[in-house]
Amino acid sequence: MKPESHLFYQTRSRRPVLAEARGVYMWDVDGKRYLDGSSGAMVSNIGHSNPRVIDAMRRQMEKSTFGYRLHFETEPSEKLAAKVASLSPSGMEKVFFVSGGSEAVESAIKLARQYAVTVGQGSRWKVISRDPSYHGSTLGALALTGYAPLSDPFMPMMQAMPKIPAPRAYLDGLDINDPATGQHYAEMLEAKILEEGADSVLAFIVEPIGGASTGALVPPAGYMRAVREICDRYGVLLIHDEVMSGGGRTGRFMGAEHFGVEPDIIAISKGFGAGYAPLGAMIAHDRLVDPVLDAGGFLHGHTYAGNPLACAAGLAVIEEIESGGLMQNASRMGGVLKSRLQNLMQRFSFIGDVRGEGLLLAFELVSDRQSMQPLPRALNAYNELVELAYAEGLIIYSRRTRGGLEGDHFLVCPPMIISEAQVDEIIEMLTNALTKFAVKAGLAVET
Ligand code: PMP
């Protein structure tokens, strides 16, 4: 038994102490090796201990590690802002740095609100989001997060925000490839705007490809386009939360590129700093930022914003992604991993669905694929399977929710540098873990 720690996170559960991490592998102080099959929390997109990033950070550290934004501009933050703008839709030329995903989302909704006030639309303040969704843990971002167990205790402290269902076509028995399905779910946004009163609605925030809340939910055909049209029809701003789907892991720098849709504001983080530095950004259209700056300035900021060390890391991460062809590898290896996960469905009838794009992939467990009913709660599958995989030396990420309903889903999202042999390693360890889980839970396994 380890001695009681002074450090605390969500629970009392303790973990092995990390000794070293390189590429897709991590080692604890007892020498046990783990394959980082979830890139931490979908963060370590280019793998661990990348020499280019370490070198860039070391060089920056020798020059300066902090310059307060009201006193100095810094070269890394200028260069990274230009790079990010070049990777964003045209016209989205303004970049505001933060230190994480929740801060990026807070910044996005505050910019949207300040823009509305500036242009004489002060009646607009409601931000519609989806249920389920995850947009962060700070109070503003939490008000948008569609996951009641996380937000319920804090509701008296925040403003309730309207929610619409996420497009869970696979649970609703609808064809994800049928544009009528996309239209069906997008119309829920229009209905909500009308119900709330269009001139009170400021924005709609959406994860273009879902993250931990929905388990890599890919929207049905036509959904994102229809959402954009509806936002335009009612003067509602569209915010893409690309905190998890941005940064290249889906095979494109922004997840929304898969759908050819451009938002008004983007929030990114996670793979942007890729675990080397706490880094995030809000990227906004000039059309929104210019009036706010002209009217006296954006009433928002964080002390560490634009930190030169974090920005030097972020710049080197993007250089590594581009020079190493890592987005192409994410597409290719994502395809291989997805089809291997789909193959596991033949063996394990309790895998209900496999989905995702590139290396943002998930599967979920069900009692029965016909009814798509969840496994009994008592099986504690979301925890058990993760622990069994961990014992095998494989890290995966889970949530006890299936599209916001009762159930269990698991994200398999290794770093974008993964090789085919390492994909095989993931599948072998996962097969062992699933077999042990099935035996323990009394579930059938085809041999
Ligand atoms: N938005 C999305 C889509 C996320 O996945 C997360 C993190 N899981 C956040 C926002 C919040 O990011 P952070 O934990 O860095 O505050």
Automatic annotation (TrEMBL):
Belongs to the class-III pyridoxal-phosphate-dependent aminotransferase family. It comes from Hoeflea halophila. PROSITE patterns: AA_TRANSFER_CLASS_3. One of its GO terms (molecular function) is pyridoxal phosphate binding. This is Adenosylmethionine-8-amino-7-oxononanoate aminotransferase. It comes from the Bacteria. Keywords: Amino-acid biosynthesis, Aminotransferase, Arginine biosynthesis, Pyridoxal phosphate, Transferase. GO terms for biological process: L-arginine biosynthetic process. Its cofactor is pyridoxal 5'-phosphate. InterPro entries: Aminotrans_3, Aminotrans_3_PPA_site, PyrdxlP-dep_Trfase, PyrdxlP-dep_Trfase_major, PyrdxlP-dep_Trfase_small.
